[in-house]
Write a structure and sequence with these properties.
Blueprint lengths: L3 H17 L20 H8 L3 H8 L7 H10 L4 H10 L11 H16 L6 E4 L5 E4 L1 H7 L12 H7 L1 H6 L3 H15 L7 H13 L4 H5 L9 E5 L7 E8 L8 E7 L2 H12 L7
Antiparallel strand pairs: 1-2, 1-5, 3-4, 4-5
Helix pairs in contact: 2-3, 2-4, 4-5, 8-10, 8-11
Length: 282
């Protein structure tokens, strides 16, 4: 749960947002007798379905709120996604993000695509919280094969690691990285573990890579750690790449994977591969 200092900060944060709202913003009629800016505490309490005394104590940092009640207060205060995340963190909770719809996914992919393209010699891809690929750059396609060639319902990093012959053929010692991908998914997926899309991916894995069924039946978790891997596309020679990952600011549940050439030879070979991608097809 939150610390006393965090509770005080949460109260100040809620109060500041309450004072920014106008009655009309929440469907109330303004009156000429208002002496303070924004909404009254009793109005926020009523909109949130809580008592006035309790809401007053919340702003004073004297009580803690359940996740459900804090979400109701956030709705009453018209907090956006970033505001809700901040409030949840101050209250000691990790937010439970709502599933992104197609428009959200497309918008995120469009926003991140210029970043991916800025690494012409470094394979990079954007993943959603199910590890579905939302975007990738030319270097990713040149090294691992174009994701467009994979059926959309299998365009998922876990499926690629377990069942894609091109990736397994290019990546030396693929199993430790593949296992780490599965462990990291379980560690960060949260509500995505019970989503229909996760079930669908696991069904495809059962069908296409049944010999690895113990991987997705395992409950071990781990962070996706930085590491150096070796790949060897046909006709290019071994290439050492350093894997790193980060979360886009616009969606902390998404993930960007970046494979950076580890030395000048690796950079030169990746440049050759991306300039003449057909050479890797052998």
């Amino acid at each position: 749960m939150s610390t006393p200092a965090a509770s005080q900060e949460l109260g100040a944060f809620l109060r500041a947002h309450r004072e920014l709202l106008k009655p009309a913003d929440v469907g109330l009629t303004a009156t000429a007798r208002r002496r303070t800016p924004g909404l009254r505490r009793e109005e926020v309490a009523s909109l949130s379905g809580v008592g006035l005394a309790w809401y007053t104590w919340l702003e004073q940092g004297r009580v803690t709120a359940s996740r459900q009640v804090l979400e109701a207060v956030a709705r009453a205060l018209r907090l956006d996604a970033a505001g809700l995340r901040h409030a949840m963190r101050l209250a000691g909770y990790h937010e439970s993000p709502a599933p992104a719809d197609a428009a959200d996914r497309d918008g995120l992919a469009a926003a991140v695509r210029p970043v991916l393209d800025s690494w012409p010699a470094s394979p990079a891809a954007l993943l959603d919280r199910h590890f579905d690929l939302l975007g990738w750059n030319a270097a990713w396609s040149a090294l691992w094969g174009p994701p467009e060639a994979v059926p959309a319902d299998r365009r998922n990093l876990m499926w690629l690691m377990a069942a894609d012959g091109r990736l397994r053929g290019v990546l030396h010692d693929w199993e430790p990285l593949a296992m780490n991908v599965f462990q990291h998914f379980r560690a960060q997926a949260g509500p995505a573990l019970s989503d229909p899309r996760t079930d669908e991916v696991y069904r495809h894995l059962d069908t296409d890579a049944p010999e690895l069924r113990h991987w997705w039946g395992c409950h071990s978790v781990a962070e996706l750690t930085a590491r150096t891997v070796t790949v060897e596309p046909a006709g290019i020679g071994p290439i050492r790449l350093t894997l790193s990952s980060f979360h886009p600011v616009d969606d902390p549940t998404a993930l960007v994977l970046l494979f950076t050439p580890a030395d000048p030879t690796a950079r030169a070979r990746m440049t050759t591969l991306t300039t003449h991608p057909l050479r890797s097809a052998g």
